[in-house]
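TA notes, week 10

Several of you asked for a full example with nothing omitted. So below is the full record: structure tokens for the whole chain, then the designed sequence directly under it. When grading your own attempts, check the secondary structure regions first.
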């Protein structure tokens, strides 16, 4: 910001020199300000890129999880939903899945472990991210990044959702995946993520919430079709 120098004097030469000095100082200050702004912008872009990579990896793993579960045709998801809150260890989680007839339970848990490792790597490699931004800012950045990568846009046209059942179902499915990503990523970015066994169990719980969300979306779709909506 330009700062004027007011100097008392009667000689033109002294006034001229003072003004010249002021101009040089102001130019230096402006240059310094611009440099600082560029550094801040460069840092923000770097943080955004790092967060983008983290979210991209998480979404990729979560898509694998969803696809795996979609192929578990004989699974008893109601049993998982009722039993997940009592799970305290990875062994108990695997036992619950086996009881619920999840054929690829070990592979599913392995995907949770990958999400856990990705989250730990992000935490350990981005300490400055937590000191530079508040919890609210980090949460907003995560939500924006997830929405961007999922191309998610919430619609408020309830009449259109009732008419076009398929469109509403796709939107609901995207919302389930969005909430899934935010639930996992949110614990990491606000600083409550513990990793280890706790991180794997948290992955299992978030997945259960996603399953329930998708089940609700399917129920709404069938109800929409029965009411005469477009398939």
């Amino acid at each position: 910001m330009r700062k004027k120098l007011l100097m008392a004097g009667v000689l033109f030469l002294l006034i001229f020199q003072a003004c010249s000095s002021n101009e040089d100082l102001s130019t230096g200050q402006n240059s310094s300000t611009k440099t600082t702004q560029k550094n801040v912008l460069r840092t923000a872009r770097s943080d955004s890129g790092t967060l983008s990579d983290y979210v991209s990896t998480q979404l990729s793993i979560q898509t694998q999880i969803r696809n795996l579960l979609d192929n578990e045709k004989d699974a008893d998801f109601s049993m998982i939903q009722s039993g997940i809150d009592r799970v305290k260890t990875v062994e108990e989680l695997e036992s619950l899945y086996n009881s619920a007839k999840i054929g690829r339970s070990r592979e599913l848990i392995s995907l949770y472990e990958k999400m856990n490792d990705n989250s730990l790597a992000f935490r350990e490699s981005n300490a400055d991210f937590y000191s530079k931004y508040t919890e609210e800012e980090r949460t907003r950045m995560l939500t924006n990044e997830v929405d961007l990568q999922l191309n998610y846009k919430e619609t408020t046209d309830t009449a259109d959702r009732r008419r076009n059942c398929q469109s509403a179902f796709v939107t609901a499915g995207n919302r389930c995946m969005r909430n899934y990503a935010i639930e996992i990523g949110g614990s990491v970015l606000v600083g409550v993520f513990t990793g280890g066994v706790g991180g794997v169990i948290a992955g299992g719980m978030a997945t259960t919430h996603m399953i329930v969300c998708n089940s609700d979306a399917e129920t709404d779709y069938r109800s929409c079709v029965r009411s005469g909506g477009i398939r």
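Confidence is low (pLDDT under 50) at residues 1-27, 29-46. Use that as a sanity check on your answer.
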